[in-house]
Amino acid sequence: MKTPGTLKFALKGKEHSLQPVTEDDGTLFIIFRDGSNKKETYTAGRFLYATPVVNGEVVLDFNKAENPPCAFTPFATCPLPPPQNTLDVQIKAGEKRNTKVGVMYSVDADKHINISGADELNMESGLATHQATEQAGDRRDEQECKQREHY
After folding, report:
1. CA distances from 78 to 37, 69, 73, 102, 116 (A)
2. 110 Cβ neighbours under 8 A, 6+ residues apart
3. What would the 3-class secondary structure string for 62-123 be?
4. What is the signed CA dihedral for 11, 13, 14, 16, rounded to 10 degrees?
């Protein structure tokens, strides 16, 4: 993956930097970790996409920070943020940690909570987990799979 350089910005009076990679269409893809990962957001980090550099500037909209696929299922693998993309500040914008499998929510700049899925996604995710467990040859009993459906 190719990196176009370092994105430097100020937040809460302090200079920060992130190193993105460039997607085929020029979009910048940033994998980052911050102080909110301990309790509020996905532990391993989050993803952020930004438009290509225009006149030497990029807009970083942390309201669009999202959890990687591995935040939703144990059957996904995700890249980890490189060490240089660890911010020593909390980014409280963007998607938050899932409290249940299949439930996704985010908080926008006006502190409105946006929820998608809930029961439908939870049931689909539980069913998918049950099927994948059987296909993988795992001998977990049906009760454990049913508990995951309601988790």
Report:
1. 16, 7, 11, 17, 22
2. none
3. HHHCECCHHHCCCCCCCCCCCHHHECCCCCCCEECCCCCCCEEEEECCCCCEEEEECHHHHH
4. 20
pLDDT tens digits for 44-63? 999 999 999 889 899 999 99
Distance, in Å, from the CA atom of 72 to the CA atom of 74, rounded to the nearest integer, reads 7
Query: 16-20, 48-52, 69-73, 126-130 — which is least confidently predicted?
Result: 126-130
